[in-house]
Prior knowledge:
- Four copies of one chain form a homotetramer.
- Helices cover 46% and strands 12% of the residues of chain A.
- By secondary structure, chain A is of the alpha/beta class.
- In chain A, strand 2 (63-68), helix 3 (71-85) and strand 3 (89-93) form a beta-alpha-beta unit.
- One NADP nicotinamide-adenine-dinucleotide phosphate binds next to helix 2, helix 5 and helix 8 of chain C.
- Chains A, B, C, D: One of its GO terms (biological process) is fatty acid beta-oxidation.
Amino acid sequence: LYNHHQLHGSTGLRSGSQANFFPPLEDAMLPSGSFNNRMALITGGGTGLGRAMTATLSQLGAQCIIASRKLDVLQRTAEEISSQTGNKVHAVQCDVRDPQAVSQCVDQIEALTGLPDVIINNAAGNFVCPSERLSPNAWKTITDIVLNGTAFVTLELGKRLIQNQKGASFLAITTIYAESGSGFVVPSASAKAGVEALYKSLAAEWGRYGHRFNIIQPGPIRTKGAFSRLDPTGAFEKAMIDRIPTGRLGTPAEIANLAAYVSSNYASWMSGAVIRFDGGEYVSLAGEFNELRSVTPDQWKLLEAMIRKTKGS
Amino acid sequence: LYNHHQLHGSTGLRSGSQANFFPPLEDAMLPSGSFNNRMALITGGGTGLGRAMTATLSQLGAQCIIASRKLDVLQRTAEEISSQTGNKVHAVQCDVRDPQAVSQCVDQIEALTGLPDVIINNAAGNFVCPSERLSPNAWKTITDIVLNGTAFVTLELGKRLIQNQKGASFLAITTIYAESGSGFVVPSASAKAGVEALYKSLAAEWGRYGHRFNIIQPGPIRTKGAFSRLDPTGAFEKAMIDRIPTGRLGTPAEIANLAAYVSSNYASWMSGAVIRFDGGEYVSLAGEFNELRSVTPDQWKLLEAMIRKTKGS
Amino acid sequence: LYNHHQLHGSTGLRSGSQANFFPPLEDAMLPSGSFNNRMALITGGGTGLGRAMTATLSQLGAQCIIASRKLDVLQRTAEEISSQTGNKVHAVQCDVRDPQAVSQCVDQIEALTGLPDVIINNAAGNFVCPSERLSPNAWKTITDIVLNGTAFVTLELGKRLIQNQKGASFLAITTIYAESGSGFVVPSASAKAGVEALYKSLAAEWGRYGHRFNIIQPGPIRTKGAFSRLDPTGAFEKAMIDRIPTGRLGTPAEIANLAAYVSSNYASWMSGAVIRFDGGEYVSLAGEFNELRSVTPDQWKLLEAMIRKTKGS
Amino acid sequence: LYNHHQLHGSTGLRSGSQANFFPPLEDAMLPSGSFNNRMALITGGGTGLGRAMTATLSQLGAQCIIASRKLDVLQRTAEEISSQTGNKVHAVQCDVRDPQAVSQCVDQIEALTGLPDVIINNAAGNFVCPSERLSPNAWKTITDIVLNGTAFVTLELGKRLIQNQKGASFLAITTIYAESGSGFVVPSASAKAGVEALYKSLAAEWGRYGHRFNIIQPGPIRTKGAFSRLDPTGAFEKAMIDRIPTGRLGTPAEIANLAAYVSSNYASWMSGAVIRFDGGEYVSLAGEFNELRSVTPDQWKLLEAMIRKTKGS
Ligand SMILES: NC(=O)c1ccc[n+]([C@@H]2O[C@H](COP(=O)([O-])OP(=O)(O)OC[C@H]3O[C@@H](n4cnc5c(N)ncnc54)[C@H](OP(=O)(O)O)[C@@H]3O)[C@@H](O)[C@H]2O)c1
Ligand SMILES: NC(=O)c1ccc[n+]([C@@H]2O[C@H](COP(=O)([O-])OP(=O)(O)OC[C@H]3O[C@@H](n4cnc5c(N)ncnc54)[C@H](OP(=O)(O)O)[C@@H]3O)[C@@H](O)[C@H]2O)c1
Ligand SMILES: NC(=O)c1ccc[n+]([C@@H]2O[C@H](COP(=O)([O-])OP(=O)(O)OC[C@H]3O[C@@H](n4cnc5c(N)ncnc54)[C@H](OP(=O)(O)O)[C@@H]3O)[C@@H](O)[C@H]2O)c1
Ligand SMILES: NC(=O)c1ccc[n+]([C@@H]2O[C@H](COP(=O)([O-])OP(=O)(O)OC[C@H]3O[C@@H](n4cnc5c(N)ncnc54)[C@H](OP(=O)(O)O)[C@@H]3O)[C@@H](O)[C@H]2O)c1
């Protein structure tokens, strides 16, 4: 009745045509000044999504610190954003895998701006690889950045904030496959799942110290960092768009608006939340019968007639 | 070492004192005019959270329709909001349990404003009761409103929007116990879980028609409707606040800002998302060792010493 | 690099060849006599999975009652099983949608065998259909059987068991798309999600009365009832097998062994559990990068080289 | 109406009295010989739950290898079990945190028995501690054992099994707070969540090589290793039992039967499953209204009367 080609999404509505219904709205969403007098630390803030979140917070009045390994990249980003927004962006070198480096980085932050009000754990590493080709080192490269890195930054800042009786909003950027797992990105899946448990745990434990912890799980948003290591040939992208219900990738500015909301006092009652932001990709993948989207109206009539004629079990 | 009294949250930090760190910010968050020229339907919009969401959308420029059983309540609310915002709010009587009434209500809406761009399924019923005291009728009273009602409204509007090739944002208000289940509110738990599956399913299936489907799971927010049937004596409230990491209940204005964001084009890439908004209550309940929050610093020192001395397994 | 055909699973290992690693073991697993002197009620026990579970429990010594609408089918099954196992199987007509019929059915059961020790809620209805083609009646046909039917049977038995201070094991058969939702089977997804919340809720609430509540989520197992309404042309089956990690469908005898375990005293400490039994299909569907299984070893070498050359983000 | 004392579980049914309904059945459940000619590796098999699983598999015919740091403990256990079952149990020293040690351990296993058919990743470390008192070293002590250790063992065995075209069943022992997170055991929660994602990912990716991956999440089962570090004073245990719907802790023999089933060919179609085995504790904790179990029948009558009198919302 329906052939293999049809089963995989090429009939009926041209895939992605629905994207017109879902235009990205990329202006800053929060009232200007929402982050006045607030300090924000964004790890991995020099590139990609981290950069976009930094730009939005800066535009809304925050003084930002961005931290990662490549100081030159950070400095260029800091300058560009701060020249556009008029608000200071600081660049601090830090390899989050190293607890001592993290501690020194926080020393620097305390000296520069004082302890932050907003922390976004966004630094990560990832690449596609069959798991039987992973060495212990490859495993550790990813999990050290993603899980240990996030833990070191979070625990170090948490301790100092608690000592100073200062509240803060913590946000972690994970991924839609953190809960389900996924083949071919296994160290990332495991580490991001660990990050989610870390943040849900601390949401419960450290509320009493004035801290909130939330999670955003992005779906595919084109950045050089992610796409060059997850889809180097670009061959995967079409299949991805085909199955995203909103028919398009997300944009950095969209996730920046969401992150700003979650980090703002408008969300001061939000803690322990896990927000999927993926154009619907996850539910589209996970639902067992969703591939029937390729059945045409005429085929449905036939199917219905057959089902109606079925008697008994 | 720690006694029964201490195990249940009465030592150390006075419960709820942390609420100072999490002040509600209740002004409208989105840019004014965000919903200009958009029509919004809010079921159960005459009272409680539905009323707050209606007020916010109206303030942001939407033309709203509120629908439920009590026309007088709806009309009073419609008038009050519209006199404050200057934007028309329509009141339409509708018992969502009745598919014909739903169809007629949508006829009326088409006549009044055209099909809506924003749909918020918020109408619900609930009360606390041991399950062995539930009659089949009590079961149906709740599930008919919550699950069938949401389905009838959603399917009726969906069909007409599809025929008119019009996109829309659907939002369902469920609850933090929809996933975990909960004793003593079992019909509500079951029906809300059904609503979540309905919305995740349609997020996958109807994206191609330009529709988004998302879910907000509120934690406790005082409304007359909810609290008079879930905690009629008020005895439960203290225990609830004690375990909420942010130390306070949520406010209707806060959830209205979140709902407005999810329903706006700023979130046009959000579909199939389930957003818990509960001050951290859910993770606080669910984590097996969270009751250790009542252990005092001195007790921790003792515990650590004992653990250190443990040898072997 | 890899073409559309390859992306959808047709290269490398012939799909399903791995099934040799996963041979079904269909003998009764529990010690014989495990259910001696125990009464078991299986709804929908006349056909498909319900029949297989009945056969296994009967073989292990239980006295079984099977209940559904078609008395002739039930009686034939009852006779066949009981002639093979030597243990009585009773057939009782009951439409679970009707609370009065359910109550009368339980009267009959009390008269025949006394209240059951083991209850398996397995009766269900389902068919594939685009949601925009669903009438309110089609919606209710499915949700009335699956959600209300399960609730009526469970609440009626629960009440009487509580009054009699008798413990019992309740098991519900749901589906792998109950949590994720799925397009094209939306009433079933919603109702099964409701059943899961019902059982998790009662696991918490009714433990004090000696009741356990658990859930099995089957993946695809060929039965006439399910497959004639979900894949009437058979066109869907190949795609399903292709993505099941164990390379084959499940068998009724396998799920019967699992159900017998969960219902036995070996699992007397199991309550509130949700056991997916699906050959790995769910995790295979849900993981974002699982489609990379079609990348060949040679292509992986190329991909790795490209990733290695990537500099910066 | 109901006072603080009553809200916390001390009225009505004496807590735990229901345990009589849920007696543990501790005999080996599977047919004898079920694991004849099969090799099983159990990490942490010298003590606690690992020891119990080893004993059951050995009794059912498996040749077992147990591996952990303390060779003397392993040897004593190996001898005791093997003298009871008549089947060889091998003791191999291995610190799972060290990838080289893991590789050498697998060399030894290959020499002793050949690659295993059954792998149970059970080794772990844990202790209770407020997160603000955790040093980076404390964090790494736990996550290195639990997450990296499990990954090193799993990846090393997986690679060699794949090269040898040999299928296997992998089982990981995690915990009920892996998904929800939990304060005061945060490194464990994070690492166990990582393990779950690892196993779900590989269930999807490595099915084609003949491997299955499943997870058991135990609730509280008294072992020296766990209880001496999680509840050194014993003060926590009563509260735990009070909220467990089955009114008691689990026993090592019960989880051993479940693990044997999951690892056997009776479950050859099970992959990617996550089985909670906790007496219902998790659902009891997580459900928002479950504390109402302390309301007495008389109080319910009053509550119902109040709710009935409520008019409007
Ligand atoms: N883009 C997507 O589609 C997508 C989807 C799901 C999740 N995400 C998540 O979104 C976040 C941002 O990703 P992206 O797409 O924006 O990619 P990206 O540009 O590559 O961002 C990663 C950032 O992490 C930093 N980083 C890496 N290792 C570090 C270390 N050891 N110490 C400190 N910083 C380190 C990098 O800076 P340096 O090189 O200077 O250290 C870089 O700025 C990540 O958490 C990613 O997992 C992205
Ligand atoms: N407040 C909380 O703490 C809380 C927590 C979790 C979830 N929620 C959810 O939030 C939503 C709003 O609750 P609320 O607290 O604002 O309580 P509420 O004021 O009682 O709101 C319920 C609304 O539903 C309407 N409704 C009830 N039955 C209906 C029917 N058959 N047809 C049409 N409309 C019907 C009611 O209006 P009529 O009486 O006029 O029909 C009422 O306006 C609900 O979905 C609730 O489950 C609330
Ligand atoms: N097979 C699969 O692949 C699969 C996958 C996931 C889940 N499941 C679930 O497994 C269970 C069994 O399904 P199956 O595959 O064995 O299909 P089946 O043979 O069609 O079983 C369904 C049973 O439900 C009974 N039933 C239907 N409506 C009823 C009503 N109103 N009152 C009482 N009984 C009613 C039917 O008997 P009468 O017609 O005599 O009433 C029939 O015996 C179902 O819960 C299904 O959702 C199956
Ligand atoms: N008991 C419970 O209530 C409970 C609840 C939830 C989960 N669990 C889980 O069940 C499993 C068993 O716990 P248990 O209660 O039986 O406690 P246990 O007796 O302390 O078992 C832990 C085992 O792990 C081994 N181990 C620790 N570090 C290791 C390392 N670096 N390399 C190799 N082996 C190492 C230990 O042996 P050596 O000291 O010789 O290395 C020990 O045999 C654990 O995964 C635990 O998380 C238990």
